[in-house]
Description:
Elements: H1 3-36, H2 44-53, E1 59-60, H3 61-68, H4 72-84, E2 88-92, E3 100-104, H5 106-127, H6 132-151
Antiparallel strand pairs: 1-3, 2-3
Amino acid sequence: MDKKARDYEELFAEINAGMNDIVKNFTRFEQHTVKKNNREGLSATEAHIIEQIGIDGGRSMSEVAEGLGITKGTLTVAVKRLESKGYIVRRQDARDKRVVLLHLTRRGIAAFRLHLRFHRRMVEGVMKGLSEHECRSFVAALKTLNSFLEENQT
């Protein structure tokens, strides 16, 4: 194998290992943060549902399910749990009575803000170690990775 091929294989191995480590460590970091700040009694999945609904609320079940990449059936189970815990309420859409809209309660808004702080801490932790140019390159790499993942989901 020539030097160019060896360099390519080494770089491939580093990228592959790095992506695997990111997935593993992101999950661990999120689970640790949820456990540490679990005054709200939420799972990571429930925090993501709250994040999708957002402070402004008024998101339909279909919009939230699509945003999370889950089925409406799976979301319905989680919404019932979040509703019983006092984080969200369901209301009929005034314009279309067939549509149910999800809204955060005060407790849900507090959990939303806590989850937002989690994301801010994580992103700022990454950014502080990079120059502006490196941050922009990182964003470009993330977009490339995300495009590949979106295009290859079938």
